[in-house]
Request: fold
Amino acid sequence: MSLPRLELKPQRLAHNAAAVVEACGKHGIEVFGVTKVTRAHPVVVRALVAGGVAGLADSRLENLASIRRTGYAGPLLLLRLPSPSEVAATVALADTSLNSSPEVVAALGAEARRAGKTHRVVLMVDLGDLREGVWPDRAAEVAARMAAVPGIELAGIGTNLTCFGGVVPTHANLRQLVGLAAGLRQALSLPLPVVSGGNSSAMGLIWSGRPPAGLTQLRVGEAIMLGRETVQRRPLTGLCLDVFTVRAEVIEVEHKPAVPVGELGQDAFGRAPVFADRGVRPRAILALGRQDAPPEGLTPLDAGVQILGASSDHLLVDVGDSPQPVRVGDTLSFRPDYAALLALSTSPYVETVER
Ligand SMILES: *Cc1c(COP(=O)(O)O)cnc(C)c1O
Reply:
């Protein structure tokens, strides 16, 4: 097997998916499994389906297409607002998309009619996180315009939190969403079954057993992949934190001073690094770089290994406290965070393998 590689344990992933599905199901909430952080890897797709998710969701059409190529026949949700230039592909690949622009929904409707389909739309409402969605005071007007488009079924409303602004999902803001949905049902005389209350940041509310009533859907990626909620990155009881492991190969081990020698300017990325003088230490270089993963997103799994930094293609680690000597050709292991998992999954230099 080639190095560097990203190893993935499908049973543990399926276990996490099943646990999230069960915990949400107790409150009448369906789970769409979000695949984007793994570029919708086919092993991930199978594991999420085995875990019983109601559907799969991704932010990119290319990933929805590769999910369909695995033979998956269930519901597909496009998470990122459809690009006006990709309306035809959106209707072809996604059953439902999240939207905030009535103009784009009009184009989706025209395309759906051309294709002899109905496209489902969830209107995104911004409850303060300042990424996508209309401000709540515009929800009624925009929902009415979307619902009137032939070829479109307005399926409900949704929100996204803790992505740009770091706004935490609470009873107050999620009740606001549920209340908006109730008002729209009345005003439009539509069932609007979907109240899509957010992402992994809502898992704390689910695990505490007290989510606000009236949510019907969550779109969950990170909690299933990494076993944590995303407000404080606390582990969720019962979930596996070790689904993914990064392995990389040691290409140099030398004793060197902890502080660079010579006049100091900028590093390869225009920063002026600061060094603590720990004397002369054994250091290893791994064949893994910022092209593959941000070093801040990796946690060493081998005892006595400490990450010093990385350039494009080299990861530098201090191995002075390692219980056994680290040698050229050894493989060291790391746990990736979300940013590292995203980078590793999309690096053409890293293979993802089942383990
Ligand atoms: C990525 C994304 C999600 C999933 O987020 P996680 O934190 O990985 O659970 C949900 N909804 C939208 C709109 C997204 O873009």
